[in-house]
Amino acid sequence: MSDHKEFRDLATPDVLRETLAGLDLDPGAETVALDDARGRVLAERVDAGIDVPGFDRAAMDGYAVRAADTFGASETDPVELDVIGEVHAGDRPDVALEPGDCVEISTGAVVPTTADAVVMVEDTSERETDADGGDAAGSGERDRVVEIRTAVAPGTHVMAAGADIAAGQRALGPGTLVTPREIGLLSALGVDAVPVRGRPRVAVVSTGDELVPPGDDLDHGAGDIHDVNTHAIAAGVRDAGGDPVVYEHVGDDEAEMAATIETAASECDLVLTSGSTSASAMDVVYRVVEERGERLLHGVAVKPGKPTLVGTIDGTAYVGLPGYPVSALSIFRTFVAPRIRAAAARPPTRTATVDATMATRERSEEGRLRLIPVGLVEDGDGATLAYPVDKGSGATTTLTAADGVVPVDPDTNYVDAGDPVTVELFSPSVRPPRVLVVGEDDPSLSRALDDVASPRYLAAGSASGRRSRRDGVADAAALAGPDADDALADDGDDTASVLGSWRRDWGLVVPAGNPDGVDGLDALVDADLSFANRDAESGVRARLDDALDALAADRDASREDLVDGISGYALETRGHESPARRVADGVVDVGLGLRETAVALDLDFVELGVDRVAVAANADRLDKPGVRDLERVLPDGD
Amino acid sequence: MSDHKEFRDLATPDVLRETLAGLDLDPGAETVALDDARGRVLAERVDAGIDVPGFDRAAMDGYAVRAADTFGASETDPVELDVIGEVHAGDRPDVALEPGDCVEISTGAVVPTTADAVVMVEDTSERETDADGGDAAGSGERDRVVEIRTAVAPGTHVMAAGADIAAGQRALGPGTLVTPREIGLLSALGVDAVPVRGRPRVAVVSTGDELVPPGDDLDHGAGDIHDVNTHAIAAGVRDAGGDPVVYEHVGDDEAEMAATIETAASECDLVLTSGSTSASAMDVVYRVVEERGERLLHGVAVKPGKPTLVGTIDGTAYVGLPGYPVSALSIFRTFVAPRIRAAAARPPTRTATVDATMATRERSEEGRLRLIPVGLVEDGDGATLAYPVDKGSGATTTLTAADGVVPVDPDTNYVDAGDPVTVELFSPSVRPPRVLVVGEDDPSLSRALDDVASPRYLAAGSASGRRSRRDGVADAAALAGPDADDALADDGDDTASVLGSWRRDWGLVVPAGNPDGVDGLDALVDADLSFANRDAESGVRARLDDALDALAADRDASREDLVDGISGYALETRGHESPARRVADGVVDVGLGLRETAVALDLDFVELGVDRVAVAANADRLDKPGVRDLERVLPDGD
């Protein structure tokens, strides 16, 4: 091993937090257009530059009056005023009230300076009169007269200039988060450009020769994988209020990598790299940090996330995240995102937590804070269960199959099944899936789930589903092979209830035209063909093994004898299409699979039998709305 | 009144919700780049198109071996294997292992097909040998040999191709919210374009001749006001997951308005207008809805928000919001935003609520759901008090001075002081201000508050502050005039504690050069000058009245006699700068104000006295961190 890194003195999580807090990420202030200010934070106080309203404004529809003219008016003894004009919103009043005059006025209109109150229309009755004051009967010039049935004080139903906010008054303080309501007030003040705290510019640099951008083709044989961290971390930076700047993926060319990191440091407030798994890439990062900055911390007592590096490069804050996506995002979310939020002056997120019961025992490791990714499921009583989700730090599905993490203290060895735990949700909006299905990878089930709201489907195989349901984790097991036969046999298991079942043809998938002339299981056993199998958890594999048992019995041999003749029988693949895809790619001659898959991939199919799939719910989950939804959409064959 | 609208049959809130639910806002689906997918919702299922990983991948640094070669190896009885090469991440392995061979391998590298397990480096020791197998001593060609101290089973520390997710498996279901974690999985799958639910296009149209965009100048005399609703509602639409399309402000030209609304209906999924207060504008909207669509509902039993109109225009959903910003945003937030969220398939926001005690009695009105805007303050025991914030529906400061609303049932007449209430926060991130200061509008206090986190300052005047503190609402009162003298006199009021105090010169603000030669209060009383006063709540006004009393005593007259000679004494303005600004604008000859204001506005100043300002906290709030912060930043004069 050329340069295997040891981490003898791991920093505690608190030390990591303090180290990050000590870094300078200050983005400074900037001015943005009002329409771009939503979600930003004011960099400085905004005082009112104008009175709002800018004039004495009618607060009701009615009549603008001289208040003194109404004194003594009542329902039984109204006063009459002459209506000498109208003022609507947006009009310049060109009337001057003499004693006994009034003006019809609309809400929002300018109250003439010669008036000092508004009587609302509900307290008035207007009529027309002849020019001489009598009731209007014939034609001729009409005067307008209004009966006022209430006395009003000066200022009634008038919003005085500046009554909302007066010029010179403090409107919004520095640090205010701009929401639609603040945008409303800023609009009222006529502010169309807003001084806000800048968003920290965060360089996102992924290193590693093996990384290929999504959308480009992979060379699997050369160990290519898609670059996961760049896009996920850039999105996380945006969530935290930062401005991600993605630097083109750098390979393991040392000079190029050093140049990219130095450029990023000169252009951004924080540089994030996510480590190449290759030692040479880390060497370059170390060298750049040592030569042009300071290494503040290397190695954290957190699992996952140990190989985290914190320092500065040319005075710019630097964090080196682990390469594995689960580790990188875990460290980012727990430690780096809050620091970016603080630099952007965003209010800290309230960590959303859920009290749950651990569904299965999970070991931990002394001396490190363990963050166990867990999925959540509600049991029949509405209590929340947490079950560990961990396909290894390298697995990206762990990211989406988990709802949050259970933090386990460094001095705790394990969490036992039944232990109460506090789950830190990935975000406050996370909800447990409405129904959790574990079991066989089946295309019909996958399609049916499209019509169920918020399902989770862990296609780990029929045997996994059987165990998960029995352990009280899965709401429902997707069973295939003999598991399905048992479930459908109604053998008196009153803990389970079949929600739906259907049939599917299983057999051998071969290239289009069946070039090797495969006509059954005998051919597979006897001919010199390469084969791709499914894993032992799957129901279709159980069907194959049963068929091999039967063939062995016919031949008076053992299954092992037959299996020895199948090149690739031990090659277990995980997905229902995996063997067929290997056939399509010309990697093997024959694959185990379903007719539907062969048709979808334009391959030929040699049927060996009919499999049944049954979805069996835990009896005590039947009242869950998600389980009822699932039952509604599942095929119901025999 | 030309066309005053009556609302005889008000729809209930539930009917409004159902009517909105019945509108078609479906934006359809679209495809966006991966980097733009954050926060969007998947429109369809995404299945894995490739195996992840695409090859058997080393999960640890170490040696790739044929597992069978390690059988029997132990700490005490290691086996030795020949190291025939190295494979790093991104390398294509070009080695073939024979029995007894192994290959150095890095995490993430391709496991050669001739190996089937990885031994981690911690369980090995490598040494070099001479080509003939002896220990390396001299120079010459060296062979590498590694001692393996543990037995491994096939598959150990190997992540099999497709073990994370296999091609053909369901990766993410329709309706999944795309967060950084989903972006991680999509990246791993190589997906760079994502099918997502569209964002409903929401037309935002503000109507009214009197509306002027922020940034443009207002003609106050003509009743101009800035357009508040367009920007605030557009921001609210974005918050809800919609795509706001702002249509240029339309005046009251009927043809133009009708054309704009029809264009908006043809281009968007939902048209929102916020009503002009002018009757003619509403007439146009009614006419367009009647002629080209359907009026579904007009008038809602909600306060504020009664004049809400729901219908369709050319088949497009239409909602007419009230014109007043508080009303418009209240109806938008409570009813329209959830509908937009649903159309965008966003998960509904969890309504954040806070239990509080009503601080003061508030009347309601039977028959309508009342949404009382309230501010929040924590008392000395950490309990939350809610106090009504309502400067009228026309006041935009109500938007920012409130933290949420208290819904009051239609059959309830009032909420009493001391009643427990549930406050619906405007958003889950809303927190009560850390310190609430009510009282005198003072520039020194405003500046000091810039250094306090999350303050709220209601500059309603010294008298308001005194009452609010006494009523147990304000944490601290900003007192001036005689209120400040009393507070500083240490007269044994043990309910209050002065946090800081300072002096300010008060007097008459006159134009630069003092053209009227104003030299004191006598001139104001005796000369023919127009004057702008402050309101009776302010401490500076109390100083003026005291000085007038003293002058009256000198002259053996009453204050009323003197006041009669001051043209504009009754003109009360609200802000500390308001009179001075009227002087600067040439509206009046003399204004009541502070020396600091005169200097800031380049005006002259005639000092009449020295005012004191004292900030007095409620004694039982002294331990609040915000109060301690305030004390720290306040000037402490005598």
From TrEMBL, chains A, B:
InterPro entries: MoaB/Mog-like_dom_sf (IPR036425), MoaB/Mog_dom (IPR001453), MoCF_biosynth_CS (IPR008284), MoeA-like (IPR038987), MoeA_C_domain_IV (IPR005111), MoeA_C_domain_IV_sf (IPR036688), MoeA_linker/N (IPR005110), MoeA_linker/N_sf (IPR036135). CDD domains: MoeA. Pathway: Cofactor biosynthesis; molybdopterin biosynthesis. Keywords: Molybdenum cofactor biosynthesis. GO terms for biological process: Mo-molybdopterin cofactor biosynthetic process. Transmembrane segments: none annotated. Residues 203-342 form the MoaB/Mog domain. It comes from the Archaea. SMART domains: MoCF_biosynth. Gene3D superfamilies: MoaB/Mog-like domain, MoeA, C-terminal, domain IV, Molybdopterin biosynthesis moea protein, domain 2, Molybdopterin biosynthesis moea protein, domain 3. PANTHER family: GEPHYRIN (PTHR10192:SF5), MOLYBDOPTERIN BIOSYNTHESIS PROTEIN (PTHR10192). This is Molybdopterin biosynthesis protein.
